[in-house]
Design a protein that fits this description.
714 residues; alpha+beta; Beta-galactosidase, Chain A, domain 5; TIM Barrel; Immunoglobulin-like; 3 domains; 12 helices; globular; binds (2R,3S,4R,5S)-2-(hydroxymethyl)piperidine-3,4,5-triol
């Protein structure tokens, strides 16, 4: 039996991950915090590799590499470990491993965030062999569960464009379940690179052991759940093991690593709750706002984006009228969407202009700076749309640099939305993209916000920059190139906000969110479908980052007709914005919007910095309800929506959560469209324990009826 020499504890306030190092390094435990980790190890609990490598007797390994001499094997043995306290909340632990026979070194990195119960994991690899080695599979992290648990229930966010992040839950069976994505530019179509995993039985909102994981990578990724018969360390018996392995997708992505070169994977975040999925989401949101979302502590502005109100058809006058309308509603920022650029190849539709980031002189003869000034004169900030990773063949950029696109030299180029993807593995192209965006910001220094779009994925993968034996690097080098561009922009323009748009819903991950303040949740602005999309997205991502816009009626994507109030009540549960032409609204509607905007400004800190409580799931119900509660529990906002009206439906009883049972709260219904309240206790004071046990009967009496309640400590 292998002798254990070190117990390595990586813990947070309420969770422990225990590693044990003998000749190799094992994971002994991950779950609720335990006080005496060494007892777990001494008791010879079931140990599984902390990060397995292919080559010994384990064929389900995480890391797989090929040495220059063709040897396919790797055996990682313990060298040393160290822990460093970065501040009162963060501790970083490194565990160094080395191949038994070759000079290949792998470091396991763990960063523990105590208060948020989050552990980030990643690895780095280097070697000093004479020639390059090839990384074939190089995940960021492995997280394993031995037979301590009998059943596993996997919750994932799946969906396509305009129907993103649907929730689904399934019991894992023996075998392999793989979530992956090979789009290259989009990380979150198909599936989001994240999951929740309930142990033993499906966790509910408020009960059960559940783990979440999320990969911080904006390119192709893979998370596999391999439930197999594993050999466990302590008695050499075969038992069931679930290995969760998460990282960059290795599909056609072999990576040659030169001697001395360091390869660092993206980070994988994991968190644990013994009290259900609601608490788990709140932990992740708190962590994100503090550590993994740009400016997670700053309020987001209420903006109007020009897309659905104007599409490609506008001149200065249209935009000024939108600004006037927004100003009357007391909005805070105007964002000019697609269609403002290109002269030789004007961007009047999606067929031309991408790549030529000069203002279209015909449409906007006074330029962008004049628009910024016009916005400022109306007390608005100004934002602008770009899609700088892309090029239309009908562009000056493509005429000058056809070699800059991702393509295979002997094959026809495949267009998608009439465009091609620029090859960001090429530093020259990275510079071009950086300069394109930077010069827009330098020329018009009042620009406060960039909506960064990305409307297609990889096809005919090939790079005229990468050498023949490194074409497969494109997946990794593209995303790292993109990050390099973002990082330069963030450094040089720290006050300019960036929205990760990506077709709507296409790039929602913690890699991009370190560099952006928010994401465009979906191109689908239909309020009914948004309830589902935002519900799923909120499992892993916080409301402050979730752009939610009120659009025109009938909805442009679904044709659905829903009241303006319902549209506002849904959008006000995220980062509120507008996506319409104010001049098409009636005076009554404008008055409603003005009041709703004022209400949102008041509840904004609670929505954007508060804790999310999911109250009634829209899945399988005729209603949906959620709330946010401020950290000090003095304020809350609750939302209730009727999504499907059937005669005889029971009205929802809204039992609130997360309040202080002893505090008294003044309950005010806001956003009332005709003055009538949906509750009998509007304007009354009730104790938290009543609100959380008896609750509020909400009279939602027709489809798309909705209500928003503001609670303030009395
Ligand atoms: C897709 C985005 O999601 C939309 O909001 C809009 O910006 C269009 N692209 C513009 O082409």
């Amino acid at each position: 039996m292998e002798k254990i020499k070190h117990v390595i504890e990586i813990s947070t306030d309420s969770s422990s991950m225990i590693l044990a190092a003998g000749e190799q390094v094992y994971q002994c435990y991950y779950g609720k915090k335990i006080a005496t980790p060494s007892q777990i190890v001494d008791g010879y609990t079931e140990m599984v590799p902390a990060y397995s490598a292919f080559g010994g007797d384990d064929s389900t390994a995480a890391l797989r590499l090929t040495h220059a001499n063709g040897d396919l094997s790797t055996e990682l043995v313990y060298v040393r470990h160290a822990a460093e306290r970065m501040d009162a909340n963060i501790t970083e632990t490194t565990v160094e491993l080395k191949d038994r026979c070759y000079p290949v070194y792998v470091t396991l990195h763990y960063r523990a965030y105590a208060a948020e119960d989050v552990i980030e994991k990643w690895i780095s690899v280097r070697h000093t062999e004479a020639e390059a080695i090839t990384l074939n599979e190089f995940p960021s992290a492995e997280l394993s569960f031995s037979s301590l648990h009998n059943h596993y229930y996997l919750t994932t966010l799946n969906g396509l464009w305009e129907r993103e992040h649907n929730l689904s839950e399934e019991q894992l069976q023996i075998g392999k379940k793989v979530l992956d994505n090979r789009y290259g530019t989009w990380s979150s179509f198909g599936s989001n690179p994240s999951f929740m995993l309930s142990l033993n039985e499906p966790a509910t909102e408020d009960a059960g052991q559940v783990i979440a994981g999320a990969l911080a990578w904006s390119g192709a990724w893979k998370i596999s759940f391999d439930y197999h018969l594993g050999k466990l360390f302590h008695d050499n018996k075969e038992r069931r093991v679930l290995s969760v392995v998460a990282g960059i997708n290795d599909f056609a992505a072999d990576y040659k690593l030169d001697p001395g070169q360091l390869f660092t994977t993206p980070t994988f975040m994991q968190s644990y709750s013994g009290n259900g999925k609601g608490e788990l989401s709140r932990k992740i949101h708190r962590w994100a706002r503090k550590y993994s979302l740009r400016d997670g502590d700053k309020e987001r502005p209420i903006l109007l984006n020009s897309w659905e109100g104007a599409y490609f058809t506008f001149g200065e006058e249209t935009l000024l009228s939108m600004m006037d309308g927004l100003n009357k509603m007391d909005g805070e920022m105007f964002v000019l969407d697609d269609g403002w650029f290109g002269n030789k190849h004007p961007r009047n539709n999606a067929a031309a202009g991408l790549g030529d980031w000069q203002v279209n002189n015909k449409k906007l003869p006074n330029g962008i700076t004049a628009l910024c000034d016009a916005a400022e004169a109306r007390n608005l900030k100004f934002g602008i749309w770009v899609e700088p990773e892309m090029v239309n063949p009908a562009s000056e950029l493509y005429e000058n640099h056809p070699e800059w696109v991702i393509h295979q030299p002997n094959r026809e180029k495949i267009l998608y939305r009439n465009q091609l993807v620029l090859d960001l593995s090429n530093p020259e192209v990275q510079d071009f993209v950086y300069d394109s965006v930077a010069s827009i910001l330098v020329d018009s220094p009042k620009i406060a916000y960039v909506k960064w779009d990305c409307n297609r994925s990889f096809t005919n993968i090939g790079s005229s920059y990468l050498p023949a034996d490194r074409q497969s690097h494109l997946w990794v080098d593209y995303t790292n190139g993109l990050y390099r561009i973002y990082d330069r922009l963030v450094e040089n323009f720290p006050n300019v906000m960036i929205q990760a748009c990506a077709s709507g819903g296409g790039r929602i991950d913690y890699g991009i969110l370190k560099r952006t303040q928010e994401f465009w949740t979906s191109d689908n602005t239909d309020a009914l479908q948004r309830i589902f999309i935002q519900w799923g997205t909120g499992y892993i991502y916080p409301a402050i980052a979730m752009a939610a816009h009120v659009s025109a009626c009938p909805n442009h994507q679904t044709g659905r007709v829903v009241p303006l109030k319902f549209r506002f009540d849904v959008a006000m549960s995220g980062r509120l914005g507008l996506e319409l032409a104010p001049k098409e609204m009636s005076d009554d509607e404008l008055a409603f919007v003005k009041a709703a905007v004022a209400d949102y400004k008041r509840i904004r800190p609670t929505v954007q910095f508060g804790d999310l409580y999911r109250l009634i799931s829209p899945y399988g119900s005729n209603f949906a309800a959620l709330s946010y509660v401020s950290e000090d529990k003095t304020k809350a906002v609750a939302y209730a929506y009727a999504i499907n009206h059937m005669l005889g439906n029971l009205l929802p009883q809204l039992t609130l959560k997360g309040l202080d049972p002893q505090k008294h709260y003044l309950i005010t219904e806001i956003n009332k469209s005709n003055g009538d309240a949906h509750i009998t206790c509007d304007g009354k004071v009730l104790r938290g324990d009543i609100l959380m046990n008896h609750g509020l009967k909400v009279n939602l009496e027709s489809e798309y009826d909705s209500a928003v309640f503001e609670l303030t400590e009395a």
